[in-house]
Amino acid sequence: xxxxxxxxxxxxxxxxxxxxxxxxxxxxxxxxxxxxxxxxxxxxxxxxxxxxxxxxxxxxxxxxx
Length: 65
Fold this sequence. Notes:
mainly alpha; 65 residues; single chain
């Protein structure tokens, strides 16, 4: 939710109603951990592909080696 920019008020309200403050923190922490893990795996795969001389494929995100 934090990375998407403006979140509609109704979605934010439902998020707050459905979960306790601690649960909301856990959801957001999990989201951030998954995001970092995904970027790390994509970057490692791109590095490995280049080292092995494989054809370069489009990056999954805007960050490229």
